[in-house]
Write a structure and sequence with these properties.
Length: 197
């Protein structure tokens, strides 16, 4: 943890940011968890508006420096970041960042890993693949991040049933409900556990 007793979290997101919003809401009045930075790789992404409205500093990152430079470690340090949450962040995490934050980076994936994960399996593509395979269930996976896509140790999974009439869009809605319900809670519990150990 940073020198103060407040855990500083950076949320990395590439899209609309509905999960980021739920996490911000959950910890808005927390005395020990602060959402200190929003990191985004996509100009114009909804999550940047959320950052602005919530008056949380944001950082727009570029590929070259993220993957081949210092992975923005100086900025993360400057904001005293202790823990990183990927909430719809679509780039792989460089090794430098994983090594700087061992067991302190988690991701949410909109399917039941180890199925329907890996490169190219994000957002809508995941739901399309699940529906095409006529699965009877899907769900969410919250996991630690390692150097492979969607691969680190699983922390939590929740499932939902898929009806015959479900389309990828309808499934996406069900998955978002699960994510919003569980992600902020699991994050809070995980941080509490890590602080105790
Ligand atoms: C979420 O469903 C998240 O699980 C998914 O992107 C969506 C972002 O929604 N992440 C991935 O697909 C990562 N492989 P949001 O911007 O509304 O939070």
């Amino acid at each position: 943890m940073s020198s103060s007793s407040v855990m500083h979290i950076a949320i990395f997101a590439s899209g609309a940011g509905s999960n980021a919003q739920k996490i911000i809401d959950r910890f808005r009045s927390s005395s020990h968890i602060k959402i200190a930075l929003i990191v985004c790789n996509k100009e114009g992404a909804g999550v940047l508006n959320i950052a602005k409205t919530e008056k949380i500093p944001s950082l727009l990152i570029n590929k070259e420096r993220f993957f081949k430079g210092d992975a923005y470690l100086p900025e993360l340090k400057e904001h005293h970041i202790d823990f990183i949450v990927l909430a719809g962040f679509l780039w792989k995490i460089p090794l430098a960042l994983i090594q700087a934050y061992p067991n302190k980076i988690i991701n949410i994936h909109p399917a039941l890993l180890p199925n329907y994960g890996g490169k190219g399996m994000y957002g809508h593509f995941v739901h399309e693949a699940v529906i095409a395979a006529k699965e009877k269930q899907s769900g969410i996976t919250i996991h630690y991040v390692d150097e492979l896509y969607d691969h680190g140790n699983i922390i939590y999974q929740a499932t939902c049933d898929i009806d015959e009439a479900d389309t990828p869009d309808l499934l996406a809605k069900k998955i978002h409900v699960l994510e919003h319900l569980h992600f902020p809670r699991v994050l809070g519990e995980l941080i509490e556990l890590q602080n105790r150990s």
